[in-house]
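ok new one. same drill as before - structure tokens go in, u give me an amino acid for every spot. 208 of them this time. try not to just spam alanines like last time pls lmao
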């Protein structure tokens, strides 16, 4: 018989320029059961952005109400201007359908999500080295030298959070990084703690 399991919440972090978006997009292209978490924000939509697809666009009053209702896994106030947050409802609805949800977020947000959702799987996408990361930032051609220096220093601080994560994936070759992400998904789905119902059936003599 089919064994439907609750989907995983995969929290993915990593420094700017490491290729988190590229790895996640390639993983999702291979696995239609994986969804990217949709954040809520108080900023105005940009041209082409669709409510519920790119973001859930909220007024400040709506966002404050969601905070009061404990409706976020995490939220933050960016540069003292706009609010961004991860709605619990979207994540839980997708997971109950058996879909896996990727939440791409910084290390501080990842800690908040882990506290709110202890079964979340934390994955850190790391560069092969800081020098290679810096070269990638330079290769973008969109960063000033000052910006590159700041991002490199920030990356070093973020790397210090690695022991707090469940897994580390080195993004040297995208295809290899995607394969490692797939291995993480497979391993997590086979954890005994995620299969208590099946274990109960087996120990009770039922066929699964």
């Amino acid at each position: 018989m089919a064994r439907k399991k609750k989907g995983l919440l995969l929290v993915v972090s990593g420094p700017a320029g490491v290729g988190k978006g590229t790895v996640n997009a390639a993983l999702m292209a291979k696995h239609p059961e994986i969804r990217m978490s949709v954040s809520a924000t108080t900023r105005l939509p940009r041209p082409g952005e669709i409510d519920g697809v790119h973001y859930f666009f909220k007024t400040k009053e709506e966002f404050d109400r969601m905070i009061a209702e404990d409706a976020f896994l995490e939220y933050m106030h960016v540069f003292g201007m706009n609010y961004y947050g991860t709605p619990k409802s979207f994540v839980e609805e997708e997971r109950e359908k058996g879909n896996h949800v990727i939440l791409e977020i910084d290390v501080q947000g990842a800690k908040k999500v882990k506290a709110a959702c202890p079964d979340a799987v934390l994955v850190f996408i790391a560069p092969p080295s800081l020098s290679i990361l810096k070269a990638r930032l330079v290769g973008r051609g969109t960063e000033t030298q000052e910006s590159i220096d700041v991002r490199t220093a920030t990356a070093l601080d973020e790397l210090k959070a690695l022991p707090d994560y469940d897994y580390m994936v080195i993004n040297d070759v995208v295809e290899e990084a995607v394969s490692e992400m797939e291995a993480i998904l497979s391993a997590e789905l086979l954890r005994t703690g995620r299969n208590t119902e099946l274990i109960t059936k087996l120990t009770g003599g039922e066929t699964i």
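Helices lie at 20-30, 60-68, 88-96, 107-116, 130-140, 145-159, 174-189, 196-203. and btw Strands lie at 9-13, 34-36, 40-41, 56-57, 72-78, 82-87, 100-104, 121-126, 167-170.
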